Hints:
- By secondary structure, the protein is an all-beta fold.
- It contains one helix and twelve strands; from the N terminus they run ββββββββαββββ.
- The strands form three sheets. Strands 3, 4, 5, 6, 7 and 12 form a six-stranded antiparallel beta sheet that branches. The protein has a four-stranded antiparallel beta sheet with strand order 8-9-10-11, with no helix packed on it.
- The chain is elongated and about 60 Å long.
Amino acid sequence: MCRFVRSLLLATTTLTAVPAMAAPTLLAIGTLSGATDLAPSTGTLENGLNGNILGGMGSALAWAGGYTFLAAPDCGPNATAYNAAVDDTTSYIPRFQTVTMALTPNGGAGLPYNLTPTLAATTLLSSPTALSYGTGAGLGNKIDGTTPIGSGAPALNTANQFFFSGRSDNFAAGVFTNPNNARFDPEGMRVSVDGKSVPDYPSSSAAQYPAQTMNEWRFDGESGWPATRSNSKRGSVSPLSSAITAL
């Protein structure tokens, strides 16, 4: 499910060891806001918003060591109603944001600490081989009401780089677990022990189609080598021609 907010409110809490049912203690509150992230301009989305709009990072938040966290939006902004045929989704490129969150003691009144989030990097998710995008044929118009919605392929695609997309029609014929489907709606992530990859980055399609099997993905964030796709029901792992590309 896609939900997209323009700012991220971060709260830091701690749990005391005794008693076991003790309530969490709020240590600090910080706000990360801004109009755009650090990705290159990806053009205007079908709903009229900027393709590198900053927001929606509540879908996943993973600690990457020290003061560094990775925050993932899901399929992109769909709060603007413009085309129910595609569930108001757009060709927004799935990504994760690298955020540093400095925690410093607060010597004055208020909470015990100050939390200062800073956006350090934006990493877009792409494949070096072609992905399957919807054509948009028969699916109505963009937000202006007159321009056909067109292909779900992101404007940033090149001959050797194909970006995943949040638009709901970006599927090939057949089961949604096809690894060449461009549709990607990440709902969670974590960082590997060595800090070099982002494994188990599941698509929410399994929630939409519970009778089918959910894919889980591993992206290599350092080398950009091909990632793997694992099937969460059967436990098998197969190569996937996709990689994280930091732009």
